[in-house]
Write a structure and sequence with these properties.
α2 crosses α4. The chain is globular, with a radius of gyration of 16 Å. It has one domain: 3-Layer(aba) Sandwich (Aminopeptidase), CATH 3.40.630.30. It contains 4 helices and 9 strands, in the order ββαββββαβαββα. Helices cover about 25% and strands about 30% of the residues.
Length: about 180
């Protein structure tokens, strides 16, 4: 688990400029804020994940949480990767009318960075909703593996070393203009 936070840049779509944000571990007190803003985070019950490795992406200027991600490191040594178990961008930041961009990219890049730090050579995978497979391929460069198994009815999406390094450069190593 990350100590402190990781500074990132998000795009303020209306202003056309980058703003400061931070990725840091989710605190138990944050769950109250998330529960109260159920219309913003309505895809998952994040309270069920309070004992897991969950990160929040929040704006520095006002502490507003705009993204959440749960990482899982499998104990099985044959699974040499970090799994993105859940990923959710707040409702107001999805689609063409979003307020901020790069939320999902920053969280995925953070997972790739963690994979390198943990000795998994950047390997990260997630089990997608069918409707998001093309989005993960086109926007984030994931590879689709159509291997179906229990718990993976639609296969899985994966980043290996090269793709992980690319997404880290694109979303975490961004220099302000």
């Amino acid at each position: 688990m990350l100590n402190g936070g990781l500074d990132v840049k998000l795009m303020d779509v209306a202003a056309g400029r980058f703003i400061d944000a931070v990725i840091e571990p989710l605190m138990v007190k944050d769950l109250t804020v998330i529960r109260k803003s159920k219309d913003r985070f309505d895809k998952f019950d994040w309270n069920k994940y309070k004992a897991k490795e969950v990160y929040k992406l929040k704006l520095k200027e006002n502490e507003l949480i705009v993204g959440l991600m749960c990482l899982f490191e499998h104990e099985d040594p044959t699974i040499d990767a970090v799994e993105i178990e859940l990923l959710e961008v707040s409702a107001e930041n999805i689609g063409k009318r979003k307020s901020f961009d790069y939320i999902g990219g920053c969280l995925i890049a953070f997972a790739c960075r963690e994979s390198f730090k943990r000795g998994h050579q950047g390997c990260v995978f997630l089990i997608p909703k069918t409707s998001l497979i093309d989005h993960y391929i086109s926007k984030y460069g994931f590879k689709y593996e159509p291997i179906k198994a229990p718990g993976r009815p639609d296969g899985f999406m994966v980043h290996y070393d090269t793709g992980a390094r690319r997404i880290i450069r694109e979303f975490l190593d961004r220099k302000p203009a």
